[in-house]
Write a structure and sequence with these properties.
The chain is mostly helical. The chain has 8 helices and no strands. The protein is globular, with a radius of gyration of 28 Å.
């Protein structure tokens, strides 16, 4: 009888320990989550998020390099590399989020913005004797500082809005907005047609980057139509370069200070 009683008590003790184990485990997990929340440690990003953010940072850095360089052909080559980075990002999104239409968009963007547009722009400059971009409204150091301030404003403003994307991390959207603002700086402070054209083209890259963040699932025909709008801009700037170079033997826009009938 005593053995039976002892066995029964041992069984009850083991059952109680087993029932309290999940509670203790849950308490440990809760305390761990509380520590993570208190310390502000972020979740480790995935490989896809890291790759997307890296490509977006490269696009922004190339935009700063366009603002920094003083050679026309170097600006066009930097634009080609930036467009290549956007095409790579489209491939990354297509592979990471299973959106096969973006593969087609990446190929079209590669052919148009990496090959065709730079070749056309370099052809427009073939007969030009000008190699160095016109002086800006500000010094180089002041232009870079202004671009840094504008880029920081754009990045943190988008972060404060709390926009979430199911396709790309939110940081990529802030970087794309920073690219757009720095492109505006390039168009405003530079006083030559080529720099303004490259700034406009790179602005389109920033818009493409933002569209990959917030609207990667758009119909393919709409995304390709946006790219062909770029061809219209290339034709317009090409005509402007030719006409301005013929009339003033220069690509500087300093002399364009009044309208003529």
């Amino acid at each position: 009888m005593l053995d039976v009683t002892l066995t029964h008590l041992a069984t009850l003790g083991s059952s109680a320990a087993a029932s309290t184990a999940p509670i203790q485990t849950g308490s440990a997990v809760a305390s761990t989550m509380h520590v993570v929340a208190a310390t502000g440690v972020a979740v480790v990003p995935t490989v896809f998020e890291g790759a997307a953010n890296t490509v977006a940072v490269i696009v922004l850095l190339l935009e700063f390099m366009m603002l920094r360089t003083a050679l026309f052909r170097a600006q066009i080559r930097l634009y080609a590399f930036q467009s290549l980075a956007v095409s790579v990002l489209a491939v990354v999104v297509a592979a990471g989020r299973d959106i096969p239409e973006l593969y087609v968009l990446a190929v079209v963007s590669l052919l148009l913005k990496v090959i065709i547009v730079p070749r056309v722009m370099l052809r427009f400059l073939r007969d030009s004797r000008a190699e160095i971009a016109g002086s800006g409204a500000l010094g180089v150091a002041s232009e870079i500082i202004l671009a840094l301030v504008v880029a920081g404003f754009g990045f943190f403003t988008v972060g404060a809005l709390g926009i979430q994307s199911p396709v790309l991390p939110t940081a990529a959207l802030g970087l794309s907005f920073a690219v757009v603002l720095v492109s505006f700086v390039l168009m405003i402070v530079r006083r030559d047609v080529v720099s303004q054209a490259v700034g406009f083209f790179s602005l389109e890259n920033g818009v493409s980057l933002a569209s990959l963040v917030v609207a990667a699932g758009l119909p393919l025909i709409l995304e390709v139509a946006f790219l062909f709008d770029l061809l219209v801009a290339v034709v317009v700037f090409g005509v402007l370069i030719r006409v301005h170079q013929t009339r003033s033997s220069s690509l500087s826009t300093v002399s364009l200070n009044r309208l003529r009938g």
